[in-house]
Amino acid sequence: MSRLNRVVLVVDDDPDICWVLERLVEGLKVPCIRALDCQGALQAARLNRLALVLLDAKLPDMDGLELAGQIRRADPGVPIILISGYFYKDDHIIQAALDQKLIYGFFEKPFSHKEIVAAIENALSSQKVASGASDPSAASPLCAETMGAVHSKMDFSITTGR
Amino acid sequence: MTEGNLKTKDGKYRSVSWVVSEMTNDAGRTVGFVIVGRDLTEQRKFELQIQESQKLASLGVMARGIAHEIRTPLTIASSAAQFLTEENLSPEFHRECAEKICGGIQKASNIIENLLRFAHPTTNTNAMLVDLPSVVQAALSIIENQAKAQNIEVRTRLQLERCQILGVSGPLEQVFTNLFLNAMNAMPKGGILDISTERHGGDLLVRVTDSGDGIAPEDLGKIFDPFFTKAPGRGTGLGLSICHSIVDQHKGSISVDSQIGKGSTFTVKLPSLPPAKEVKR
């Protein structure tokens, strides 16, 4: 599954959470890198072409949603999935972040591997479609979707089977 | 201005503030007084509402903090267990998953224990003579290796004579361990951790000084609040509130001085035993 040399960036200050997410991403044959704080994440974002960011909400040096804003400003196309134990799925802060399309989706910790892998695949597919379209908005038609614990409101999310 | 309660016809009380102004004539003689009473009932209601909303806000911060801290190790245990349901795992990965499950559960359990300690700090019913420098040394031995790894130089100036207090050594050791770890968290790129003890009147003082970034003035009033943290990845935000609670149980106090860019000093003040009651070392 080639993603045009793009990588998935995992950002979490807990190395064990990175261990989990890296294994899940690498199971999809997608290259994955990790950052344990926001500065590391911003540096990784500068040095790599990101296909997706899996982001914790609470980091030592910056709030996760603030980091999401900075990553999106630098690369508006990159989808970000927030994975956090700090918020709940219908939390107004999460709803606002989804409504503003700051994040692509949200998972509460602990999460189901099956559901998060499906969301990662969706996000990667949507990016591929968006980057392949001459007009990125052309790839944003249609199916905002909700899958179990996933809350995704990005217009261009497209479902693919595993 | 003074405040007092007025009893109303229906037997209820109303809080009233009174302001008395003197009236004088052209010659400066007092010819009367004007007394104005202001019903404070609505103001008191408003203040109560603010207090309640502040309590709720604190509870919200606390609940989010607990959720974040406990869900992280739960996630690790849950994910490792999900990996174990996959087929064709190597024995090494199998063992790694089992270790992650045990580690995650242990971490969650430690957080819960800290919460319990915060909610029900050890009382002084088991208090006995405690040699304070020994407690400080015991806490130091816990953080020594981590300090070296973080390139932190530890300097100690411990007064060794007449430094006994009535207390419980375990929780006191936790106080100093927490303070040292807190200081070290303030110096992620290394620095100096200075620890000193001294007698001050009838009290023993332990000062823990770091050369870190310091604490912003607007945060100084919140640092002992449960789950308040500026570094969510590096601690639960319970450490200092537990310290405060334990020191309070020992009839002591804990204070902080801090300057941005220069560092912070936490001072623990504990009542010492009168010299006659001290046991010779």
3D structure, described in words:
The complex is a heterodimer of chains A (162) and B (281). With 162 residues, chain A is α/β, with parallel strands linked by helices. In chain A, 38% of the residues lie in helices and 19% in strands. Chain A has one domain (7-152): Response regulator (Rossmann fold), CATH 3.40.50.2300. Chain A is built from five helices and seven strands. In chain A, helix 3 links the parallel strand 3 and strand 4. In chain A, helix 2 packs parallel to helix 3. Chain A starts with 6 loop residues before the first strand and ends in a 10-residue tail after the last strand. Chain B has three domains: 2-39, no CATH class; 60-119, Orthogonal Bundle (Helix Hairpins); 125-277, Histidine kinase-like ATPase, C-terminal domain (Heat Shock Protein 90), CATH 3.30.565. Chain B is built from six helices and ten strands. In chain B, strand 9 and strand 10 (263-271) form a beta hairpin. The model of chain B has no long low-confidence stretch (mean pLDDT 84). Chain A binds chain B through residues 13-14, 16-17, 19-20, 23, 36-37, 57-61, 84-88, 108-113, and chain B through 64, 67-72, 74-80, 82-83, 100, 103-104, 231-234.
Question: What's the CATH H-level homologous superfamily of chain A?
Answer: Response regulator
SSE order of chain B, as H and E? EEEHHEHEEHEEHHEE
**What is the second-level CATH architecture of chain A?**
3-Layer(aba) Sandwich
The main sheet of chain B orders its strands as 5-7-8-10-9
Low-confidence sequence ranges of chain B: none
User: What overall form of chain A do the CA principal axes indicate?
Assistant: globular
Radius of gyration of chain A: 14 Å
Counted beta strands of chain B: 10
Sheet of most strands of chain B? 5 strands, mixed
Radius of gyration of chain B equals 27 Å
Q: From the helix content, strand content and strand pairing of chain B, which structural class follows? A: alpha+beta
CATH topology tier name of the largest domain in chain B: Heat Shock Protein 90
CATH domain class name of chain A:
Alpha Beta
Question: Helical element count of chain A?
Answer: 5
